[in-house]
Amino acid sequence: MRYAHTIHEDAIQSLFALPLSERRKLLNECEVLARSPFAEPDYVRAEADGRPMSHVIRGNHAIAYWVDHSAKLIFITRIDLAD
């Protein structure tokens, strides 16, 4: 079964602040994450609650996410400008 993805409200707000072409590119990258749930992230950082959050850099943006393998779901929590 294929993994699905869900985009948190914070990430949605970041997406809607972008021009349409950039938004489409990042949404496509979210689909790529769902098709490759075992791919290595660019880096991992622990959140305030201790959860390890994976990050991938795509263009000028960092996509933060975590994977629930039992539910086959990618949780995209934030999309920020890359440092």
Q: Strand order of the main beta sheet, please?
A: 1-5-4-3-2
What coarse outline follows from CA principal-axis ratios? Answer: globular
Task: Give the rounded overall mean pLDDT.
Answer: 94
Q: Helix fraction?
A: 25-40%
The number of E-state strands comes to: 5
The end-to-end span amounts to 35 Å
Number of helices: 2
The SSE order reads EHHEEEE
Rg computed from alpha carbons, rounded to a whole number of angstroms: 12 Å
Oligomer: single chain
> Which secondary-structure class do the elements indicate?
alpha+beta
- Tell me the strand percentage band: 35-45%
| Largest pleated sheet | 5 strands, mixed
How would you describe what is shown here?
The chain is an alpha+beta fold and 83 residues long. It contains 2 helices and 5 strands. It has helices at 9-16, 20-35; strands at 4-7, 43-46, 52-58, 61-68, 73-81. The protein has a 5-stranded mixed beta sheet. Strand 2 (43-46) and strand 3 form a beta hairpin. The chain is globular.
Summarize it.
The chain has helices spanning about 10-15, 20-35; strands at about 5, 45, 50-60, 60-70, 75-80.
Helix-strand layout with pairing:
Blueprint: E1 4-7, H1 9-16, H2 20-35, E2 43-46, E3 52-58, E4 61-68, E5 73-81
Parallel strand pairs: 1-5
Antiparallel strand pairs: 2-3, 3-4, 4-5
Features:
83 residues; alpha+beta; 5-stranded mixed sheet; 5 strands; globular
